[in-house]
Amino acid sequence: MDNNRHEEKHVEVRREEKTDSGLVGATFIKYAAYIIIFFGILWFLISYVFPMFS
């Protein structure tokens, strides 16, 4: 019986990170829409609402 016998196994592990570009694009469009709506409301307030108090 040979207890000093060792088998070496070489295992190659590959880790692939998947980036879902569709999800990134949808998130960008969503936040761009939020920013456009925010600036639209801000423009409305500055143009129409604030002059009423002057």
Structural features:
single chain, 54 residues, 1 helix, 54% helix, rod-shaped, mainly alpha
Main sheet, how many strands, which sense, barrel? Answer: none
Average pLDDT = 86
The portion of residues assigned to helices is 40-55%
- Which oligomerization state do the chains in this entry correspond to? single chain
Q: Report the strand count.
A: 0
Q: What is the string of SSEs from the N terminus onward?
A: H
What is the number of helical segments per DSSP (H or I, 4+ residues)? Answer: 1
What ranges have pLDDT less than 50 throughout 5 or more consecutive residues? none
How much β-strand is present in the residues? under 5%
Supply the helix-strand structural class: mainly alpha
What distance lies between the first and last C-alpha atoms, to the nearest angstrom?
100 Å
The dominant shape is rod-shaped
> Nearest-angstrom radius of gyration?
30 Å
Topology:
Elements: H1 21-49
Would you summarize the structure shown here?
The chain is mostly helical and 54 residues long. The chain has one helix spanning 21-49. The longest helix has 29 residues, at 21-49.
How would you describe this protein?
The longest helix is centred in the middle third of the chain and has 29 residues, at 21-49. By secondary structure, the protein is an all-alpha fold. The model has no long low-confidence stretch (mean pLDDT 86). It is built from one helix and no strands. It has one helix spanning 21-49.
